[in-house]
Amino acid sequence: MPFQERFNQIVKKTKPVSPLRMWINTLVFSVITFVLGSLYLFVRRGDFDLYIANKAFAFVSIILIGLSFALSGLCYFWDFVDTKIIYRKVLGLVGFYYSVIHIFVSLFLLPNKFPLPSWVLGHIPTMIFATLGLIIFIVMAVVSNDDVMHELGSKRWRQTLRVGYLAYIFVMIHFGLLKYNSWIAWSNSGKFDLPPLSLIEIIFAGIVVILRIILEIAIRRRRAARQAEAAEVQPEPQTQVQTDTETPPQE
Ligand code: HEM
Fold first, then answer.
1. Residue 51 has what pLDDT?
2. Which residue's alpha carbon is at the smallest distance from atom 24 of ligand 1?
3. Is 57 in the pocket of ligand 1 (CB under 6 A)?
4. How remote is the CA of residue 26 from the centroid of ligand 1, in Å?
5. Nearest residue to 182 (alpha-carbon basis) of 203, 199, 160
6. With a 6 A CB cut-off, is 99 part of the ligand 1 pocket?
7. Residue nearest to atom 4 of ligand 1 (CA)
8. 22 alpha carbon to ligand 1 midpoint, in Å?
9. 149 vs 128: which has the higher pLDDT
10. Which atom number of ligand 1 is nearest to the Cα of residue 120?
């Protein structure tokens, strides 16, 4: 079944929920995610302050934006989260707002940890990927507005949103470059410590991207199969025309 058809079917299944209710539910979900991330960090590090809360903000952002992307694939292949498909946009937007908090805290509220401009200058590649990701997310947040969507047309709009995956990958590179050493240190430590939260984040984000690739392959295969079927049905009238021309008209 084509993706759009399956999507319309799923949306019909979901009970109508007011936009306000969706925002409240998503905000509550984001707070629960923040608390869980913070608890994990507290257990792992034995401490909690703004520096650690900032990691939890980044965690919520990666999880919510990832879930917003993953819902398409999850609903296409399985039906256990079908009723949640309507949350894609709000999840993405709330995740984006958390990333803005994370950026603000990193740049302006933790000068002892990340002094400006030396910290940024010392981390140019990771900052380039972070900035590119941020710019794409800003465009997506603007485009997700209903008026802009109508102006772009639904196909163009969906294509623009797909660029979001690129932003997600840029962000993976952003924190992958920053955190890679801590992953190696943890794996070489030989202790039974909890893994860094950023390692869990990169695995989660990797699964989101892989799910999208599998979804794309499935959609293309089905499209190709449908086109092949249509092509098999098509030749009939052509054969008819040929036979007509070859057969001399009956008198
Ligand atoms: C210009 C924009 C950005 C800046 C200046 C920035 C800054 C930082 C800094 C300083 C860290 C290291 C934190 C630490 O070691 O405790 C970090 C890590 C991280 N950032 Fe960003 N960031 C930016 C954009 C983003 C965006 C857009 C996202 C998500 C959508 C994001 C997600 C993350 C994640 C998941 C981590 C790993 C946190 C951890 O240690 O567990 N960042 N970022």
1. 98
2. 130
3. no
4. 22
5. 199
6. yes
7. 103
8. 27
9. 128
10. 5
- Provide the whole-model pTM: 0.88
Answer yes or no: is the C-beta of 55 below 6 A from any ligand 1 atom.
Answer: yes
pLDDT value for 249: 35
Summarize pLDDT for 80-97 with one digit per residue, the tens: 888 888 999 999 999 999
pLDDT digits (tens, 9 = 90+) for 7-44: 777 777 777 789 999 999 999 999 999 999 999 999 99
Ordered by start, the domain boundaries in the chain are: 3-227
> For the ranges 21-30, 43-52, 224-233, which has the lowest average pLDDT?
224-233
pLDDT classification of 152: cutoffs 50, 70, 90: confident
Q: d(Cα 58, Cα 47) in Å, to the nearest integer?
A: 17
DSSP, residue by residue, the chain: --HHHHHHHHHHHSPP--HHHHHHHHHHHHHHHHHHHHHHHHHHHS--SHHHHHHHHHHHHHHHHHHHHHHHHHHHH-STTGGGGGGHHHHHHHHHHHHHHHHHIIIII-TTTS-TTHHHHTTHHHHHHHHHHHHHHHHHHHHTSHHHHHHH-HHHHHHHHHHHHHHHHHHHHHHHHHHHHHHHHHHHH-S-PPPPHHHHHHHHHHHHHHHHHHHHHHHHHHHHHHHHHHHHHTHHHHHHHHHHHHSPPP-
Ligand 1 atom nearest to CA at 54: 16
For atom 27 of ligand 1, which residue has the closest CA?
134
Determine whether the shortest distance from the Cβ of 103 to ligand 1 is under 6 A. Answer: yes
pLDDT at 16: 79
